[in-house]
Amino acid sequence: MKRFRTILAAGLFAATASLQAIAADYTLNVNTALTPEDPLFKGLEAFRDTVAARTDGKVEIRIFPSSQLGKDEDVLEQARAGAPVAVVVDGGRLAVFQKEFGALGAPFLASGYDGIRKVVTSDLFADWVKQLHDTAGLQVLSFNWWQGERHLLTKKPVASPADLAGVRMRTPGAPVWMETIRAMGATPTPMGWTEVYSALQQGVIDAAEAQHPATLGAKLDEVITHITKTGHINLITGLVAGAAWYDSLPEDLRQIVSEEALKAGDIASYGTQDALSSIEAKLTENGVTIAEIDTTVFREATAPVYDMLGYGDLRDTLRGIAAQ
């Protein structure tokens, strides 16, 4: 039944796209959980505009913020079924199709954007992209959409894993995220991003973890009191479409879409980097206490996650690429 619904959704999206974009030969509906205020959104707008310009309007990119097209996992299934949709998604959610992608969301892999960018533009990563295309029917347009380092969002001060004992913390449902949060001392609670505000407000969960732009964009400063800067996950994400949609493009248009996705990812990522200090100031102004701590205890607590999920050898390889 789930497969039937996915195929039906794909058909509906295809029909809608053909009706709404008669002037364009190809349309791609891009879903993101982020709001238009997020710095990353500027990159999506640049992607939309430059693709339209370089293809003379033959390819139209349409952007849907705040998960208007559904949860990331659902949109990925729609893309696999042939719908003209794409989603800004993390490696953890792709790991169910291609295990190696999960390592990108493993704890304390790299700091900042420049190092992780080297990983997602490497020859090794290109091999993963090809395998994902061939085996899962998904096409990475680019994977250099950096959203920042993720921190702990709580209603009490946190300095060590012991402070998170019994704390129900929202996290995406991917194994690498779940095990990281569990290793940090909290009880991982999978939940869609758009549900987090009300869940914190109503006490369904006690805490969350996120990067500064998403925290401010979702107004979580209204329902939490403390941010502990652990930087436990360096959130690099990708713009992922269906392989069938991508392969339907003529070769010249495929090249344009991929090139502009990479350029737009840099616009989004460096824009995010430049905005972090002002966002942090705004969060503080809104009454949130932001604490800098020694993260050694969290690094030590999460170190076993790599071997637990089979990423031990890959960790060293990826850290080596990031450090080049």
UniProtKB/TrEMBL annotation:
Record InterPro entries: DctP_fam, TRAP_DctP, TRAP_DctP_sf
Entry-linked Pfam families: DctP
GO cellular component: outer membrane-bounded periplasmic space
GO annotation terms (biological process): transmembrane transport
Keyword terms of this UniProt record: Periplasm, Signal
Signal peptide: 1-23
Cellular compartment(s): Periplasm
Main localization category: periplasm
CDD domains referenced in this protein's UniProt entry, alphabetically: PBP2_TRAP_TM0322_like
Highest rank taxon of the organism: Bacteria
Protein name (database record): TRAP dicarboxylate transporter, DctP subunit
